[in-house]
Amino acid sequence: MIVIPACEAVAFNLFSIPVYWYGICMACAIFMAIIVANSLLNRQYPSHGKDIIIAESPIVIIAGILGARLYFCLLNFSYYSLHPLEILDIREGGLSVHGGLIFGILALLWVARKYKIPFLKLLDVMGVATILGQSVGRWGNYFNSEAYGLPVSGQHWGLFIPQERRIAEFANYSLFHPTFLYESILDFLSFCVLLFIYLKLGKRYSGFVFFTYLILYSVIRFFVEKIRVDSAFNIGVIPIAEVVSVVLFVVGCIGLCYVILKNRK
User: I want to staple 149 with a disulfide (CB 3.0 to 4.6 A). Which of 65, 80, 155, 227 is the partner?
Assistant: First the structure.
């Protein structure tokens, strides 16, 4: 019997203030992404300046977190409109990858203009780093007992979800698909693929890595979302994350075609 046990959401208390595992996971994810992105930019494009990513990381991080939180709150507007002060509380979760991606790209556009770096080159670097961060950050969902999937058939394996964290429809089940783990593993494998592509083709094909990232992550998220039971918002019976994933997949395909055709001229 292989069962992934539930964990306490609080890692420790600092002067009577609870420090959550979710926050620790997010901090580790951001740190790793920034270090990887900075190292790649320094190595591939030293002429643009040293440690630009680290220097501007506060702007990118703040923009990403704000975007992730605002997007999540908008998807759960009926709740947060009645509890507006809770919008500021992210200690127990409530960050959307898609929202962070949108606002993070806007912040990178500002960085690119400031340092006169080709925007697509900067997006390539962040594409590699971001999916690594997503792989690490998904473990925050584990500690919060959230972002889990449908109940597993039988009781021989699965992720245990405490009674109070189960949605009403599946209150009588205890073991569920560990969708956080599925996505974390797939994200890491995608990081390996994107890193390989970046090192081989990054200089020649600006934008190739970023648009490939959009395609890979959209496919991963679309199929993982198919078995998740706690999606933030649905359009009819379709989770909004699936809709956004399809849109980003199309954008990625169009962008990839543009990059390839541009470099054939």
Answer: 227
